[in-house]
Structures are given as C-alpha cells and as structure tokens.
Design brief:
- β4, α8 and β5 form a beta-alpha-beta unit.
- This protein has a six-stranded parallel sheet, with helices on both faces.
- The chain has two domains: 134 residues, 3-Layer(aba) Sandwich (Rossmann fold); 70 residues.
- The radius of gyration is 17 Å and the shape is globular.
- It has 221 residues and is α/β, with parallel strands linked by helices.
- The chain has nine helices and six strands, in the order βαααααβαβαβαβαβ.
- It starts with 9 loop residues before the first strand and ends with a strand.
- Helices cover 48% and strands 15% of the residues.
C-alpha cells in the first residue's frame, strides 16, 4: 500500500530522457526491441518516422502515437518479455549514450541529504524501472502499458503532475520538492517545485528557464 509522504519530507523527482540519460529512449527502444523480438518489423521503421511527423503537425496526441508505435514495431509481447527486453535495452542505451554525470551526481547528493527520490517520466514503466535500478532509485512514476493501450494516458505534462501528486499524497506545490527536467512540457511540476532545476546546454532554453526563476544546469558538468 502506498502511504502519503509528509509535506515536510524532502523529495527529489527526476525526469529520465535527456535529464538522467543523455538521449531520448522511446524510438531507440522500439528499434532495439523489434530487432530482438520480431526482426521483420524493423521494415516498419519508415512508417513510424511518418507517424512521428504526423504527431508534430498535430494529427494525434502522444498517447495515440506511442500506442501505435508499440503495436507497429513490437506487436503484443507479454509483460515479462517486455521487462527482460527493457533491462537489456537500458544497459545497451547507457553503454551507447551514457548518463548525464552531473545529474547523477545530483541524485547522489539528494540521497546523502536523505531526500526520497523518484523518477517521473513519459517513458514506459517496464524499461524506465531498469534505468532506475541501475542508479539505485526505488520509485518510478512512468507510462503504463497493458499490451494494447496506455491506461491513464501518457505520463507527460499535466498527467505527470497528477501522477506525482498521487505518489506524494498531496499537491506538489505543498511539498519540499526538487524537480529536475530538460523539458518545458514539465512546466506544471517545474512551476510547483520549491527547487526547480532545468537541464540544458541550449542558450535560448537557458534564458527562457532562467526567466522563470529556475536553476539552470548543464548536465555534462
């Protein structure tokens, strides 16, 4: 049973893609998993690229896009197979792309301070958990997959805020919360956090984040 966290308890919540790990994970996961589980499906990769373009021009939302991608590139493997594949993918992705070491060091500092730490990500839970395990983070708030659909929708934007609030047991704005992300899509949590940290090397994004009063860091350092 998940017990509410005290509002006075220090917590730290981290995004995953381009925050803890250097590169995005979903398309690389689809490619990795299709090659491993159903190699013939890699021929659908050009269609997946077209679907991403459709999303960018507003033809459908992220939840629909990700559901389509899973079914297109993987079919319907069982949950246990997805977990095993997710672990293999996480290891390969870190080996290929690496962690943002400065952000991992921040996790270690939060742990030493006694903060309760979670990853909150739009990545699928079955592989986000593998990344979390690699750096000793127990709590993962991520997109769920039931084999065909995404229950509750993509863990992104307002939905990520709702899911973090559910984990905390109260409004994030009432917490001693550090939230770390590279994405302005996480504005709801960044705006609510007592200590908002924005990760970027882009000067325009740096200026925009600084104008919000957020701490801006380069995860490479």
């Amino acid at each position: 049973m998940l017990l509410p966290l005290s509002a006075a308890m220090k917590t730290a919540v981290y995004d995953l893609d381009k925050t803890l790990v250097r590169r995005a994970t979903f398309t690389p996961f689809l490619i990795f998993a299709s090659r491993r589980l159903a190699p013939w499906r890699i021929t659908f990769l050009p269609l997946w690229v077209l679907m991403m373009a459709g999303y960018r021009i507003g033809l459908y939302n992220r939840t629909s896009l990700k559901q389509f991608g899973m079914r297109l590139m993987l079919g319907n493997p069982g949950h246990e197979i997805l977990q095993l594949t997710g672990r293999a993918f996480a290891s390969a992705h870190v080996e290929r792309s690496g962690w943002l070491e400065g952000i991992v060091a921040m996790v270690e500092a939060d742990r030493a301070e006694g903060r309760r730490i979670a990853i909150a990500t739009a990545a699928f839970e079955f592989y986000a958990t593998a990344f979390a395990d690699m750096i000793g983070i127990e709590h993962v708030i991520a997109t769920r997959w039931d084999g065909r659909l995404i229950p509750g929708g993509n863990c992104y934007g307002a939905e990520k805020y709702r899911r973090v609030a559910e984990w905390l047991g109260h409004d994030p704005a009432q917490s001693d919360l550090r939230f770390v992300s590279d994405s302005f899509a996480d504005l709801p949590l960044l705006a609510a956090a007592k200590d908002a940290v924005f990760v970027t090397r882009n000067n325009a994004k740096r200026a925009k984040a600084a104008a919000q009063g957020w701490q801006v860091v380069d995860g490479e350092l």
